[in-house]
Design brief:
By secondary structure, the protein is of the alpha+beta class. The protein is built from five helices and seven strands, in the order αββββαββααβα.
Length: 165
């Protein structure tokens, strides 16, 4: 469902927001502290800062449903991935390096729109949890006439440089 080109977009150090919901369908949103895609396995893994993700983690324990929205600041190119959580666990010390790399890339992305590097790098990010989800559906979320549409191979190639596999 995720091509290598789409994975490169996902992992390029751009904004990550994670949505969950509770049993009464009340939404929660938390900023992710990094993301990685596994095109072969059809999974996405997102890092959630422990200090700001208590409700999200409770929601995942309750129903496992998750939506991850990835957005590039300079042009608002956006993608949403929906699925079910396969694993939720504390991030390892080795994975902390992935988070640090993500923050460096995010600081560069947000720097294009005037956010100071230090502001980005001071975001809450550690300790963190790693949530791995099965990618069940992809949606175009870039503002415009196609926003909210299921991502097709053609639209992925046009907007992200590669289509779903």
């Amino acid at each position: 469902m995720i091509s290598p080109e789409l994975a490169a977009f996902i992992e390029s150090g751009i904004s990550v927001l994670v949505g969950t919901r509770d049993a009464r369908l009340r939404p929660d949103c938390v900023r992710g502290a990094g993301v990685r895609a596994d095109p072969e396995a059809g999974t996405l893994s997102v890092f959630l800062p422990a200090a700001s993700s208590e409700r999200a983690l409770a929601n995942l324990a309750d129903n496992g449903r998750i939506a991850v929205t990835i957005t590039r600041a300079i042009d608002h190119r956006s993608l949403q991935v929906k699925g079910g959580a396969l694993e939720v666990r504390p991030a390892t010390a080795e994975e902390r390096q992935e988070i640090a790399r993500y923050l460096e890339l995010l600081a560069a992305d947000w720097g294009h729109v005037g956010v100071p590097r230090q502001a980005t790098k001071s975001m809450n990010h550690w300790p963190a949890f790693l949530v791995t989800l099965r990618c069940e559906a992809l949606f175009e979320q870039t503002p415009g006439p196609g926003a909210g549409s299921p991502l097709t191979r053609e639209s992925a190639a046009l907007f992200y440089g590669g289509g779903p596999t």
